[in-house]
Amino acid sequence: MILDHISIVVASLLCAILAGVPLGVICYFYPAARRVILRVVDLIQTTPALALLGIIMVFLGAGKPTVITGLALYSLLPIVRNTCLGLDQVPDYLVEAAKGMGMTRLYRLAHVEMPMAAPIIFTGIRIAAVNAVGTAVFAAFVGGGGLGGVINTGIRQDDMNAILGGTGVLMLMALVLDTLMGIVERRMNSRTAAAPAYRFRVVRRLGAAAAAVCVLGLCAWNFIPQDADGLVLYQGEFSEVQLVNSMIQQLVEDRYDLTVTIKDQMTSKNNFDELVGDGHSCDLMYNWDGTILTTIMGLDTADIPEGRTLYDFVNERLQDKYDVRLMGKIGVNNTYAIGVTQDVVDRYGVAAISDLQPVAGELRFGAEQDFFTDAGSMKFGPFVNFYDLDFKEVRHVDIMLKYKAIEQGAYDVMVVYATDGLNKRAGLTILEDDRHFFPDYYGTILARNDVFERFREQAPDLEDTLSLLNGLFTDELMSGLTYEVDVEGRPVDEVAHEFLVGQGLLEK
Hints:
It comes from Agathobaculum faecis. It contains 22 helices and ten strands. By secondary structure, the protein is α/β, with parallel strands linked by helices. It starts with a helix and ends in a 6-residue tail after the last helix.
């Protein structure tokens, strides 16, 4: 992960230099173009990092190219500005002397102005490099790897060791990079130093060559294909997905001479995009039928024909439009649920969502931003209208921080996922959805229709093996497994292996 992070930063910085320095030169040569170029790079810098990566991903797909492009664009501002500023500050008498010697504009730029402006340009590169180290954590959201996944998981699980460990590595990385570049910058600013001895010049050139080789190697690392032998999945953001992925890997590799590769962490929407189409980069994924309907397909429960189940409707649409299918229900119904603190239960004796109606005016409600959107009928507005709830206060909170917030007493009622092990840690009581507002969100494995034919020789009954997970879980059972991972801090593979052994699907 550390090497991934460094390689992303170095590759994006190199791209930013290759684009930013020429743009800065154009700004210097053409004042009219300067206003446009600087305004554009200013706007790029003010664009939220996730939004910028999302836009780029539409064109480049998920993965490192998207991250490198986004970070390079984010790094342009200090490089372009400092290049233009450095060239502007070259003394006029030097420029006039160069003109008097008959130098052409480009020759003067290369041999007089750029060497004089180099220290200021390098300062811009130094600023861009340190900023890129921190910004690169967003790579985890688009399957780009790096240390972002460690920090995100630590925030969700309230694992201070993971948060501090990931942050500490980033700080050390930025500090070392800044120190090394600071040494180079001071050397460039040393105008009065005597000419170095021949031996020192040789050492310096060898060092520069070694640094260039390292930079090129780190850049090339990003484009070396990940090991993707056999069946390929992407890792998920939440422990339930990670547990099922690990179980798939262990079951398949135990029964066949077939490798299962789990690639970098990715959101469910991006994962689905990598599953479908001719240019797919994975074969299977785990998700929930309700999430597929709303988040991935952009539909709503109102679009389901009368008499059809959500699962069957989604499965039919997937096969017709995307050439993938659902492998059956594993038994988990990870739908939206409403959790309340123990204090609310003790004070008001609530057991069902309807019980909140007379006391909602005394309670604070919290949920992630996604629950407050207008995308579908299973969101906050339709929910409070359906149950006639008027909460005292409604608060938005990041999905990774909401459990920490309710543990600190920030609110009394929270929307959660039914099988999340963090519900238990936070001491939440899940209320009965007595009027059945929230639809079922059944956990299921999605598979490309061609996957079983492609692996028929290596794994002739692969479909039967994957189906062993169907009906194996309950909400309470999955909640217990995720609790072991999220709260007790046990490794995902260990928890998954122990469960499969207990079910008689693996030997010890």
